[in-house]
Amino acid sequence: MAEECAVAASRRSGGRAARVALRSAPLAENIRPVRPGLSGGQYKPLTEANVKRIHEAALDALEQIGLANAPQSGVEIMTGAGAILGEDGRLRFPRALVEDMLALAARDITLFARDPKQDLELSGTRVYYGTAGAAVHVVDVEKREYRESTAKDLLNAAQLVHRLDNVHFFQRAMVCRDVSDNFLMDINTLYACCAGTTKHVGTSFSDPSHVEGCFDLIHMIAGGEEQWRARPFVSNSNCFVVPPMKFAEESCITMEKCIRGGMPILLLSAGQAGATAPAPLATAIVQAVAECLAGVVYVNALSPGHPAVFGTWPFVSDLRTGAMSGGSGEQALLSAGGCAQMHQFYRLPGGAAAGIADAKLPDMQAGWEQAISNVMAGLSGLNMVYESVGMHASLLGFCLESLVLGDDMLGQVQRCIRGIDVTEDTVSLETMRSVCLDGPGHYLGHPQTLGLMQTEYIYPAVADRTSPKEWVEIGRPDLVARAIERKNRILAEAAPSLIAPEVDRSIRERFGIYC
Question: Over the chain, what is the mean pLDDT?
Fold first, then answer.
């Protein structure tokens, strides 16, 4: 795409010429300065001793406190593996059981995409960024107001993610508020995600009884159940616990059905520190780890080695009001330390939320809130960074323009993750010697500089780097206005559906599709 290339070009605005940095052609994968799956792990807010202490406390919590409210099927699955059902109805987990299930758990898993080039290899400290959440509103930046989100909004978000190189997967980001029937809402959620992008998709189900019908839709898209099971391109974001330390019965039944259907699971524990999780950040991590370890037991007792993401998602409260604060520094620390370091300790694929803004609009507050937590999550080596772009008002509003702006931000974030290459070539003094002793005294135009333009540096698609004079000449562009322009251009070029036409027609004949 011309907007994403890095050669000097010119365009006119307001009748005056201005130089704007563009790229002339898409970069080959092997020379892109940032790409999916860069390795983080440079940042560790917890010491090794801290991590082990949290682990031990989580095991104590599972043995002594346990979890309540498991469905009968879950009780049978987990007690069959060695969990103990107490007279108080709580399941407790001996340490040996947890260790046995950890030994069975899947590691180095791949979350498949319909386009194999977009597969996500979750191993070590590889980092991938994407969307998530259940926002009930869309942020209208032009009117500066919030409105209810629709199935078409969800489709548009998926279409944008499909074209945004620095957003690697698309998990349902909004609720289809225009679909009143809950089963059709789940169907439309799946359809909008898969029609909009061939990247990996994540979704949730509002009722266990909806799983079978949604799997019918998935099998249609995949070309059959066998093809689906070979490359499951949708994962289930499953809030299997209701903190503190209780199972969510319906979600657990949904999880069991998804596992039997071959769908990868995000084991999601989302306590809120100071409300549904302890106020000390360390103990909030302990609770989240304990809950997710219970999920590891549950999954592997049912289906040993089933692909599951260790989703410790502890959130933060503003203790002055009790309101959630997704954009806080405390949230960034929880995602980097409590999530990334703990999943690496267990050598499990892991994911958590970062990039949430408390700000209501894509403004300076949103910028620092989104950037700080995304950088910290990435540098810590969190495999799956959910909710990294587009999310405002602490998950209540999703903004399409912010999604576009976030693509630029995530490019810069990933450049930080990649770090500095120190090799024989990069520290060689030959170029310095030739420039300083024999050359013009600068590096502009030097073959080394030109050769590294594409591989060492990343260039924003929307952000402005012109001088004040050039900025005036091109009409004083506003950042949000440029995001609106790019959003509209991508959506105008997007295919109505990325599902095969004959399959799309069959889906529309069978289900009530709203977008």
Answer: 93
**Tokens read off for 217:** 């839709």
H-helix or E-strand spanning residue 109: strand 109-111
> Rounded CA gap, 498 and 197, in Å?
7
pLDDT digits (tens, 9 = 90+) for 378-387: 999 999 999 9
Q: Is the pLDDT of residue 35 over 50?
A: yes
Q: What is the DSSP string of 169-229?
A: EEE--B--TT--SHHHHHHHHHHHHHHH-SSEEEE--SSGGGHHHHHHHHHHHHTSHHHHH
Contacts 24+ apart (CB under 8 A), 59-62: 59/95, 59/98, 59/290, 59/293, 61/245, 61/286, 61/287, 61/290, 62/92, 62/93, 62/95, 62/98, 62/290, 62/293, 62/294
Q: In sequence order, which residues have a C-beta less than 8 Å from that of residue 388 and are 6 or more positions away?
A: 129, 130, 131, 167, 354, 355, 370, 374, 377, 406, 410
Q: Which residues pair with 318 in a beta bridge?
A: 323
Write down the pTM of the prediction.
Answer: 0.94
Which of 125, 133, 123 has its CA nearest to residue 378?
A: 125
Q: What distances in angstroms separate CA 36 from CA 39, 115, 127, 128, 455, one per listed residue? A: 9, 14, 7, 6, 15
Q: CB neighbours (10 Å) of residue 476?
A: 12
Position 373: which residue type?
S
- The conformational region for residue 309 under phi > 0 = left, psi -120 to 50 = alpha, else beta, is beta
pLDDT of 10 reads: 35
Q: Which residues on neighbouring strands pair with residue 121, listed in sequence order?
A: 110
- Please choose, from the candidates 502, 514, 494, 510, the residue with its C-alpha nearest in 3D space to the C-alpha of residue 198: 494
Respond yes or no on whether the N-terminal peptide bond of residue 244 is cis (omega within 30° of 0).
yes
Q: Which residues contact 501 (CB under 8 A, 6 or more apart)?
A: none
Sequence-ordered list of residues with C-beta below 8 angstroms from that of 454, at least 6 positions apart, any chain: 6, 27, 31, 32, 33
What is the side-by-side order of every strand in the sheet holding 384-386? 38-39, 126-129, 384-386, 351-353
86 burial via Cβ count (<10 Å: 0-12, 13-18, 19+): exposed
Contact (Cβ atoms closer than 8 angstroms) between residue 430 and residue 171: no
Structure-derived torsion over alpha carbons of residues 31, 35, 41, 45, reported in degrees to the nearest 10: 130
